Hints:
The protein is an alpha+beta fold and 138 residues long. The chain has one domain: Cytidine Deaminase, domain 2 (3-Layer(aba) Sandwich), CATH 3.40.140. 25% of the residues lie in helices and 20% in strands. Strands 2-1-3-4-5 form a five-stranded mixed beta sheet. The longest helix is centred in the first third of the chain and has 11 residues, at 11-21. The protein is globular. It starts with 10 loop residues before the first helix and ends in an 11-residue tail after the last helix. Bound molecules: tetrahydrodeoxyuridine (THU). Tetrahydrodeoxyuridine binds at residues 26, 29, 31, 33, 49, 51, 58, 60-62, 84, 92, 94-95, 98.
Amino acid sequence: MFDDPQSPAWTPLLNAAWKARDHAHAPYSRFQVGAALLTSSGAVFGGCNVENAAYPVCLCAERGALSAAVAAGLRPGGLVAAVVVTDVAELTPPCGACRQALVEFAKELPVLLANRQVRQLHRLENLLPHSFTSEQFR
Ligand code: THU
């Protein structure tokens, strides 16, 4: 299902990501990003980037979606799939901080990158190999 980038299973996530992207607050970069996360409860959570006049305060779409999912009860192991959408030719992979934030909840998360024409599927373990987790100090 989520190992096929063309599977219809991605549709609710893509819809949620595009919808969230419409609400992006990106007046500085003018680069609007949407993300969506599916949890094992079947819920889909959208997120968009939220920029700030104090640039380091900017929040990425992926971590916005993650925050919404956690607030609704997501716990480690409960993430099923993720989508990141932008409206540019070059697909947008999650930044390093977002990869680290996501790996806390699912090491092998399928991550679909998409624009209006193209889809590209990755696994988080390949986007963030040798990741730091709590196993290092537990
Ligand atoms: N951004 C995201 O929201 N997600 C990504 O995966 C990459 C970058 C945002 C942060 C900032 O608001 C804008 O894109 C330009 O870096």
